[in-house]
Amino acid sequence: MDDHDQTYDDAYRGWRTSLTTLLADPALLARWQERRYEFAHRVGILLTETHGGSPVVTGPVLYGVFAAGAGLCYVGQTQEAGRRLRDLPVGESHHLANTVPPELWERVVVIRWPLLLPEAPANEQLLAEEMGPTVCGLALEHALQVATAPPLNSRRRRSSGDWQPRNLAQSRSRGAIHAQSVPGLTQLALAAWAALCKMEIPAHSTFVDTGIGRAVSPTALHRPPSV
């Protein structure tokens, strides 16, 4: 075993030891459950509710989660942002929080892509209307996944207990089939995405909102309150 593998195994054992301490008795288990849900709930509120005059996040969106070190981990889309983004850090109907705990999420980017439609070419606006928001959202999700190659989208679990790589560029999913139909809208979404990925979140805040989308910093919630 090389030094890198040894360090990784030591960190894994340290994680298990820490959890054993945190779950040492029923009272501590309840405290752990409360603390984790409180944090996830706060992240969900940041992702969806109005802050400082910013609009509530509802309807169709694209979203992505970044972690320190690993960078972009996952890209997804939903037609029900108010519900899905609140559940995302809780993990009851989404696998992401089970793999990458929300306490480690460095940034979450959310794009309200329907607001980009007026800037898209006229023919693509008509195509998007014909496709409907579900298929159009899947098409934009596929294009963003191909452009960014997030690791948790780039392979799938197998019943044998291991993982199979996914070639996103050769996918025949509904999103992949329709992604080529809206290149102008795709470029607008990618530009909005890139801007929010790079946008600095003020030191005193936990998010920025451009109207088209927002970037949230869950790790900022770990900062001690200002004196």
What can you tell me about this protein's structure?
- Strands 2-1-3-7-6 form a 5-stranded antiparallel beta sheet, sandwiched between helices.
- The chain contains 7 helices and 7 strands.
- Helices cover 45% and strands 15% of the residues.
- Helix 5 packs across helix 7.
- It is globular and about 60 Å long.
- The longest helix has 27 residues.
- By secondary structure, the protein is an alpha+beta fold.
Strand content: 15-25%
Average of per-residue pLDDT values: 94
> Helical proportion?
40-55%
Q: Count of helices?
A: 7
Radius of gyration: 19 Å
H/E series: HHEEHHEHEEHHEE
Shape: globular
Q: If strands are numbered along the chain, what order do they take across the biggest sheet?
A: 2-1-3-7-6
Q: Give the CA-CA distance, first to last residue.
A: 47 Å
By secondary-structure content and strand pairing, the structural class works out as alpha+beta
* Main pleated-sheet profile: 5 strands, antiparallel
How many beta strands in the DSSP annotation? Answer: 7
Regions with pLDDT < 50 over 5+ consecutive residues? Answer: none
Spell out the blueprint of helices and strands.
Elements: H1 3-22, H2 26-48, E1 61-67, E2 71-78, H3 81-87, H4 96-99, E3 105-111, H5 122-148, E4 155-157, E5 163-165, H6 174-179, H7 183-198, E6 207-209, E7 213-216
Antiparallel strand pairs: 1-2, 1-3, 3-7, 4-5, 6-7
Helix pairs in contact: 2-3, 5-7
